[in-house]
Amino acid sequence: MVPSQMSAARWTIQLVTLQVQHDNTKDSLELAFNAIASTKDSVSGTTGRLDRTISFVRGGAIVATLLLSFGCWYIVQQINTLREVAQHADNFNLRLTLVERKVWPDKDHQAGP
To answer: What is the 3-state secondary structure (H, E, C) of the chain?
Structure first.
């Protein structure tokens, strides 16, 4: 082989080697981009589920707060009603005691044998 042919052969071998490296790099990049795309889809699906879960928890917390507030309001109303009933019972007992004293003035002093 003539030196110019050897040089051309060497260039051809280097060119073929570069093309093989390019193809390998291209395939590797395509695999990496496909992996990134599938990971992106997985992450966006997970993000959607996480957002739905967070919304559900927030809604549950709001409903629980409303129910607890209503329960506290109802209990306070019942306590107030019981206090009013107790006050009316005390007033009724006082009136009954006054009537008893008028009807039986010496009832407290009669201690029978």
So the answer is: CCHHHHHHHHHHHHHHHHHHHHHHHHHHHHHHHHHHHHHHHHHHHHHHHHHHHHHHHHHHHHHHHHHHHHHHHHHHHHHHHHHHHHHHHHHHHHHHHHHHHHHCCCCCCCCCC
pTM score, two decimals?
A: 0.50
Distance of CA 81 to the CA centre of its chain: 36
83-110 pLDDT tens trace: 999 999 999 999 999 998 888 877 666 5
